[in-house]
Amino acid sequence: MEQADVAIVGAGPAGLAAAALLAGHGAEVVVIDERPRAGGQIYRQPPATFRGEGLPPGRSYAAGRELLAAAAGASGLRWKLGTLAWALFEPRDAGPTPGRGEATWVVALADEEAGIGRLAVRHVLVAAGAYDLPVAFPGWTLPGVMSAGGVQAFVKSEKLLPGGCFVLAGAHPLLLVVADQLLRAGAELAAVVFAQPRPRLRDGASVALGLRGRVAPVLGLAGPLARLRKHGVPLLSSHLIAAAEGASALEAVRIAPVDGAWRPTAGPERRFSCDTLAVGYGFVPSTELARQAGANHRWKPREGGWVTDHDDWMRSSLAGISVAGETAGIAGAEQAAEEGRLAAIGILRELGALDGEQAARAAAPVRRALARRRALSGLVARRFEPAYAALAALADEETVVCRCEEVTAGALRAALATHPHLGSADAVKLVTRAGMGPCQGRFCMLTVASLIAAASGRELAEVGPFHASAPVKPLPVSQLAAAWPGPDSL
Amino acid sequence: MKSSPASRRLPVHAVVRPEPVSIMVDGEALEAYPGESLATALLAGGRRAFRATRSGALRGPVCNMGVCFDCVVVVETLGEVRACMTAVRAGLSVHTGLGNDGAGHGAG
């Protein structure tokens, strides 16, 4: 079995920063990412077949170019790109591990060409990033309704405008960045719609901008706002999506006024014709690998929902598993990189490459940088926290909540009324099939949990995330079968 | 389902695309660029829906990062794949189940 000191799952800012630091101390490191190129979503590079500049020029991507260059130049790093890490097993559950008494975890891998693989390591760093917060409103399953991050990835990485005329709706500052990138790419913007009242939106930006100039590369909102105004793009506040409309694909978006808590309020709806809707209410940490392994999770609504619990060395509740970046709570790329460095120093301490004193000394500047980042990300998190209950209330009876199994909000509410004892997301999954499809509940988990909370009067924290099982993403049975050594191995 | 010609590849200045190749989508030839995602190729080819659910509802790409599984298509030799996570290469044959070639999900 292949072996290494450390497996890093995720080649975004947290994973890249950790990889460079660990390799610099002589650790054997394997970096695993499902995408074919490093960078994660924030620094997602164009396809390798496209010649020229990897990341767009400009200040906001400078940090990404540095991280990529540092990791590319680090000796002793092994890359497994285009590779899915689909489970973390304890060595006794992963078959014989010859010569690896020290291994604490076996990472199960899958690759289109190499098939199923196993990697025995002494420590795992889960830096798996995040995905856009899914919001179930009427019509959200129509082709043409996309996540804001998905639209952005088409533009910045694939060099594709995924539509002609766009509405952007949400509550996260990213929306302005995406709007600006679409505008520069020549798209028509019918409207940009924020859920927050305008003063709070402005406060968020201006307070953030007041943080000694560090914010421009982090949020970079002033330029986009000015350009949207200059181009006459309608910028609305205090409105939520009411519905997406269309026959076989998106044709228009209706938006409706809401109050400060995002609850419906009196006032006319507005309708914008468009072929693409970019939805950006926030982000959800990718915690499935840490949940599958059995690490503790904690409900932190301002950080994206359930996040992997960690100590001040970024260690999870399980020995040999650390977390960094969005998996440990949504906080942005710059904080993710600092968390990656702190996690790496903690891992070197665990491996005995640094003693306690050396680790403390190495960590001191990282902790200072992290404290500054947390002051900013905490502020952003407070200003832009999604109102989960109000978003779940957008789903009417016919709205599909679980896109994979096509379970409607009506069916979920009926199941909750019939079985009032159902208090956990897992219990509702067993009764309704919501969360059982190929996305494994990623797209319905928060809506299902919010509907349970609304029906039962429980707090979201008590409802819990779905249980995550191996494989954390679907695998072809043929790949698993090809890797099975046969009945004699049992 | 070629309802919208609105999607379009951006002219790239700092980057140069490789020579295009031909892939088959529901039995029809489509020009695409090696390395770009199948999702990009299908959207640039004017498609909005990539598949239909069991109930017949049309779906297209949503997350574009391998999470939502709504852009799944059948590729001969690969089986069911996420279009956003699959790189275009010459000779790929793709079935959405929405074309007139009588093939689709489960047929691959």
CA(first)-CA(last) distance of chain B: 20 Å
By oligomeric state, this entry counts as heterodimer
Rg over CA atoms of chain A: 23 Å
Q: Into which percentage range does the β-strand content of chain B fall?
A: 25-35%
Structural class of chain B: mainly beta
Please estimate the helix content of chain A.
Answer: 25-40%
Sheet with the most strands of chain B? 5 strands, mixed
- Unreliable stretches of chain B, pLDDT < 50, 5 or more residues? none
**Proportion in helices of chain B:** under 10%
- Average of per-residue pLDDT values of chain B: 88
The assigned structural class of chain A equals: alpha/beta
- SS elements, strand count of chain A: 23
Secondary structure tally, helices of chain B: 1
Q: What's the N-to-C terminus distance of chain A? A: 17 Å
What's the overall geometry of chain B?
A: globular
What overall form of chain A do the CA principal axes indicate?
Answer: globular
**Average pLDDT score of chain A:** 92
Tell me what you see in this structure.
The complex is a heterodimer of chains A (490) and B (108). Chain A has 490 residues and is of the alpha/beta class. Chain A has helices at residues 13-24, 62-73, 148-156, 174-184, 198-209, 215-218, 222-230, 288-293, 333-351, 356-384, 388-392, 409-418, 425-432, 445-456, 460-463, 477-483; strands at 2-9, 29-33, 51-52, 77-81, 83-89, 105-111, 115-126, 130-132, 145-147, 160-161, 165-170, 188-194, 235-236, 239-245, 252-257, 270-273, 276-280, 283-285, 297-300, 305-308, 321-323, 400-402, 407-408. In chain A, strands 1, 2, 4, 5, 6, 7 and 21 form a 7-stranded mixed β-sheet that branches. In chain A, helix 9 runs antiparallel to helix 10 (356-384). Residues 209-218 of chain A have low confidence and may be disordered. Chain B is globular. Chain B has 1 helix and 9 strands. In chain B, the strands form 2 sheets. Chain B has a 5-stranded mixed β-sheet with strand order 4-3-9-7-8, covered by helices on one side. Chain B has 108 residues and is mainly beta. Chains A and B meet through strand 3, strand 9, helix 3 and strand 10 of A and strand 1, strand 2, helix 1 and strand 6 of B. Strand 3 (51-52) of chain A pairs antiparallel with strand 2 of chain B, so a sheet runs across the interface.
